[in-house]
Amino acid sequence: MKKICALFFLVTTVAWSVFGQENTNLNKFRQLKQELATPNAYRTASGAPGHEYWQQKVDYKISIRLDDKKQRIAGEESITYHNQSPDALNYLWLQLDQNIRAKESDTYQTAAMDMGQRVNYSHLENLIQDFDGGFKLEHVKDSSGKDLPATVNKTMMRVDLPEPLQPGNSFTFSVKWWYNINNRMTDGGRSGYEYFADDDNYIYAVAQFYPRMAVYNEVEGWQHKQFLGAGEFALPFGDFEVQITVPSDHIVAATGELQNPETVLTAEQISRLEAARKSEEPLIIVTQAEAEKAEKRKAKEEKTWIFKATKVRDFAFASSRKFIWDAMAVPFGERTVLAMSYYPKEGNPLWEQYSTRVVAHTLKSYSKYTFDYPYPVAISVHTDRIGMEYPMISFNGGRPDKEGKYSERTKYDMIGVIVHEIGHNFFPMIVNSDERQWTWMDEGLNTFLECLAEEAWDPDFPLRKIMPSSIVPYMRGNKKYISPIMTNSESVWQIGSNAYYKPAVALKILRETVMGPELFDYAFREYAQRWMFKHPTPADFFRTMEDASGVDLDWFWRGWFYSTDHCDISMEDVRWYHPDSKEAEIRLVNNSVPDNLTSFSDQYAVTQQDEREYDRFLSTLSNEEKKIMGENVHFCQIDFKNLGGLVMPVILKFEFTDGTEEVQRIPAEIWRRNNDEVSKVFFFNKEVKQIVLDPYRETADCDMDNNFWPDRKQPARYERQKSRLGSARSNSDHSSQKTPAKNQEETTVD
Question: Which residues of the chain have pLDDT under 50?
């Protein structure tokens, strides 16, 4: 009896295991539930901030000095941390991003490299680190000057508080530091200096130059994931007052508004600046002649530039005696934003002609899809071969040759990088997502909007990077080296394709193929306005897009963002039927009957019983239905297979023998009951000559060879199909053939 019970238990267990597995919902249209955080009072199920949403605020007063002889930054800051959370805090966490350049940095320690057949010299240089660019902390003190316990953990620092910081209270403390500025041209990086040997001068593009507060919220707690180089920055909003001491002949561009133009600019330069505030064309504030004069003089005196910025998450600046400076006004209702560019003579004539105009255009274009640009200035600074963004200021590449000549590619690349980096003011500088965790939330959304702005600048702008076909080589590649978009920034394979271009292409498809521009634009604008000056998560974006549009997109997010599936929909089989009331049968023109069955009508001859049943069938039809049966109606059944795993809309172009054509767009929900294969019947009042699946290459289909009927990729078969099709139409034996799946590799489109 025990053995029987044991056997029964084993069989039952196995049965439940099997049935449990079979009954697990793996449908690609199942709702996103366990993937998204549970809605709460802070973040609602609609994707909006909840009625108890909160975020921290941090105010900075910073004084720094730029040493132009030693290429060094020294500074001291007073930080006031406002605890607007419901939690008491025992300590505060700061980011020490310059420690990525410390000799013992994890970035160097964890860099994996395979010598292989060929090794880039710069890779070998990275193995030998003799530059020490980490923060040198001199003190961390409270407001009364007492030392505070501080623990440095690589690129993060914990400051222990003398007593818990209660909700609603603030704490002020100070940090003093210095560090060596890296040579960006040899050491790389998002900031640093560029040396110009011809005139023995520097351009400094300086960021991450001060210890910065990390984000504390209800999603992550403290966001203190180490900075390894790929994942950028998670920062709280606050107000800044920054004093920057530089050589007196330097021109400084920075986040915020200049507070003391009378002490750092000439009277003539101030007059030009005031004129630029009223001009809708760029006006020169510092001329090339003035910049070239400063290059030769090299002043030994110093001046202090003072800037203030409110409601920003960061601060950056650029400084050089080489800078030419121009500006123009960009009106937003009753407000005027000042678009500005700073560039050396090496950037001309390209920069004087385009840069500030592109800044102004970008602000207008992005505002159309999000919200009016809220800051007082927007700045483009010329740096060689770099693109990096900060609030109100960005560092952008694009340089003519030494004779001032440039190609169309150089021009478009420069315009593109300026649009992209200025656009980052919207994402993530205002819609403040967590870059340390989710690169795509700023880079992907920004790349998508960048391409809309570029197209508005020039309808012929090269937009290959956001065309669906451009992502095909990546999506059909080796899945071992492809990450889902929803992967942490530091763990992503092929970060450019993963975090920039694939999400941008996904949004383009979502806008133009799945939702339509009207629904998409309304929902996207709602997301931007809900979360401006706040900290959204991916769930907030996904939920808002659905909430504001009324479109269920869980299948889309799951496929494009949570998986590495690719789109490959195949037309596996095409059958063509024609109803004929006179002969009481439905003639099959093209089907999958085996080739050796040459006479379909011989095998299935119409009997007297068939005729009687058909007469009874006709008696049930209305006059309209009888009319349809007697007209030239053609029914076409197409069998589709989803070979790539990514469910997508089915878009078909039918070309008819009379020279006309028709496009039918079938929503992705056609796959909802069977994610792998589906059939659909179409009917027409004319004869179909050719069918093309995804005719405009708008779904990123990775194999177009199986998207045609008849199969024009194989001419001999195509001719045979045409011949047999003609025979089938003229003879009663209804000869047939099958359109097989095609597996040839698609020609790569760059």
Answer: 1-21, 581-604, 716-750
Statement to judge: residues 414 and 472 lie in one domain: no
Can you tell me the distance from the alpha carbon of 85 to that of 57, in angstroms, rounded to the nearest whole number? 10
pLDDT tens column, 89-115: 999 999 999 999 886 766 656 666 565
Is 490 within 8 Å of 231 (Cβ atoms)? yes
Share the mean pLDDT of the chain: 87
Reported as a single tens digit per residue, the pLDDT across 364-405 is 999 999 999 999 999 999 999 889 999 999 999 999 999 999
pLDDT in tens, 671-685: 999 999 999 999 898
Please tell me the distance from the alpha carbon of residue 318 to that of residue 184, in angstroms, as a whole number: 13
Q: Which of 391, 290, 385 lies closest to 347, judged by CA?
A: 385
User: How far is it, in rounded angstroms, from Cα 72 to Cα 178?
Assistant: 7
How many whole angstroms separate alpha carbon 247 and alpha carbon 284? 22
Residue numbers of the domain that contains 470? 1-50+439-564
Residue 36's Cβ-side half-sphere holds a number of Cα atoms within 13 Å equal to 24
Do 58 and 85 touch, CB atoms closer than 8 A? Answer: no
Euclidean distance between CA atoms 44 and 715, whole angstroms: 57
Contact 526, 468 (CB under 8 A): no
* CATH at 207: 2.60.40
Query: Where does residue 451 rank: exposed (0-12), middle (13-18), buried (19+ CB within 10 A)?
Result: buried
Residue 644 CB neighbours (<10 A)? 20
pLDDT at 119: 62
For residue 623, what pLDDT is reported?
75
Which pLDDT tens digit goes with each residue over 195-236? 999 999 999 999 999 999 999 999 999 999 999 888 899 999
Pairwise CA distance, residues 671 & 27, whole Å: 10
Dmax (CA) for the chain in angstroms is 111
Rounded Cα distance, 621 and 614, in Å: 11
* Rg, C-alpha atoms of the chain: 33
- Across 166-237, the runs of DSSP E, i.e. the strands, are 170-180, 192-196, 201-206, 212-213, 216-217, 221-222
Structural domains in the chain (count):
4
Q: Which residue has the tokens 């047999």?
A: 724
At 714, is the secondary structure helix, strand, or coil?
Answer: coil
pLDDT value for 128: 59
CATH number of residue 424's parent domain? 3.30.2010.30
- Helix ranges (DSSP H) in 180-333: 184-187, 261-264, 267-276, 288-297
Could you give the count of Cα atoms lying within 13 Å of 430 in the half-sphere of its Cβ?
Answer: 21
Q: How far is CA 739 from the centre of its chain?
A: 39
Cα–Cα distance for residue pair 643/472, rounded to 1 Å: 14
Residues 558 and 666 in one domain: no
Q: Which among 524, 549, 564 is the end of a domain?
A: 564
User: Between the CA atoms of 353, 354, 360 and 365, what dihedral angle is there, to the nearest 10 degrees?
Assistant: 140
Structural domain contains residue 738: no
Encoded amino acid at 337, one letter: V
Do residues 278 and 422 both lie within one domain?
A: yes
Tell me, yes or no, whether 328 and 458 share the same domain.
no
Q: Which two tokens stand for residue 549?
A: 């549009």
Sheet of 688-693, strand order: 661-666, 650-656, 688-693, 708-709
Separation of alpha carbons 249 and 297, rounded Å: 8
| Residue 185: burial class (beta carbons within 10 Å; 0-12, 13-18, 19+) | middle
Would you say residue 469 lies in a domain? yes
26: phi then psi, degrees, rounded to nearest 5: -110, 10
